[in-house]
Amino acid sequence: MGMVRALLSAATRGKVDELRQLVARSDAEVLGSVRTPKFDTAVHIAALHGHSRFVSEALSLNRELLVSRNSDGDTPLHLAARAGKERVARLLAGLAQGWTFDASSRDDGFQHPLEMENNAGDTPLHVAVRHRREPVALTLIEASPYSAFQLNDSMESPLHLAAREGLSYVVWKILGIATVEQRPSISDRGTPLHEAARGGHSFILMLLVQKRPELTELVDASGSTALHYAAERNEKRMVKILLRRSIFVALKRNNDLQSPLHVASSCGSTEAIMEILKQSAGIAERANALKCLLRYVQSEEVVNRADMDGNTPLHLAVKLGRPQMCLQLLRDQRINPCIVNKDGQTAGSILDTRIAHFVMLDPIFIPFAFLSLIAYNTKSIPSARGGKPKPLSKFLSQYVELRMGTYTLVSTLIATVTFSSLFTMPSGYDQQDGTAVLGHHAAFKVFVVANTLAMLSSIIIVAWSHWLTIISCVAMVVSVTTAVYLTVVAKSPLLAYLVIAMGCSTPVVVLVMLGKNVFATPA
């Protein structure tokens, strides 16, 4: 018992003279038989404390201690790597390089000392990188380049761990090795590129993308690419690097069917969102960017955030005349239409200016965007010129009065002319039975259909502009279809029925175009 205590004490303090005295009293075999409760030998203890002279002396007496294991499966090199003892690690690595197996050792499945795995499957290099011992890791890579690609039980190589811990020199050293993996190793946590993105190490990510571009589109167990994690962390630089390597990675969805843009939106990563939209404008359009932004952005501040000119998304949608965007924005209760930009304008006042100058970029802006804006007529919009706030419906009324007045007048004239022409048939009527003389002629049938279509189309415009005339318009449709039926049915029943069908479809067309807003159109 005294021998055990004395040997372990000498190893802890690094006393080489005491080691020699103890061995002289017995023999070198005592070094292998003396163990701690964790099954550490004297060499394990000396390596842990960084006593390189003691380790060198002990191994010169008993070479087999280099590959001895404790209860965790660690060799002395594992402990030196964990503690960051570079001198001991360099000594052990040098001795390991000269290690040779005999036939019996190979049959028993012994590994090379530099590649030996502990109970977790970690080599000494894994341990050094995991504990951020960069000098030791570089020493071990020089001694055994192959160990840089060894996988532990979690399917992680030292490259994975170095990328996760942000050890850029270690990553650079491994990537510079001529012999690399045949196929990229993918753990549940993904590739080394995933680890770099998850850890926010942009320089390491850039190195990996340059040397291992195939990692860009690989996914982890959740189906996420490195771009998903870069977007989640709001890392603008990493997003830019990844998208420059592969623009199509922006389309990849994870197991939750979320693209990187969805992830950035859900996390409120505004800089990442802007970079994704900038780098992949076409891709973002296909992904329905605005819709997913509104769905996943939780913060009200984000959806109302202004640009350098003070314009919110609603300002820009009105300026560009984008009806679908206006619809999506105005359906979101978090959108604030009262925000003023640096020019002192709200979205409503921009609309007011465009109405005054008869400027509208998109003709279909009327049926979509404006009818959606009506739903917000209870909200007051500050005037760009100060004074009493204007209700948003006021802007809509002005627009309808200025833009639809001419259309309504023209449509009314067309409806009047076409209605009267139905009763002034070409060649007149048969005096005996009151039917059209040319009722069987093909050109007459074309006239009836075209005339009816022109009149009904005009009625739709009139009804659109002034909803209080809907009843009279419906009555006009009934009278026209009835008149046509009476004059045409005797000689051309199918034509009469066609006109009736067209007339009945007119109210349906109005309802489809305006929906529930048909009665909300300003008079």
TrEMBL record:
The keyword Membrane applies. InterPro entries: Ankyrin_rpt, Ankyrin_rpt-contain_sf, PGG_dom. It is found in: Membrane. It comes from Panicum hallii. Keywords: ANK repeat, Membrane, Repeat, Transmembrane, Transmembrane helix. GO terms for cellular component: plasma membrane. It is a multi-pass membrane protein. This is PGG domain-containing protein. Its main location: membrane. Gene3D superfamilies: Ankyrin repeat-containing domain. It holds the Pfam family PGG. Residues 403-473 form the PGG domain. The chain crosses the membrane at residues 355-376, 404-423, 443-462, 467-488, 494-514. ANK repeats lie at residues 72-92, 222-254, 309-342. The keyword Transmembrane helix applies.
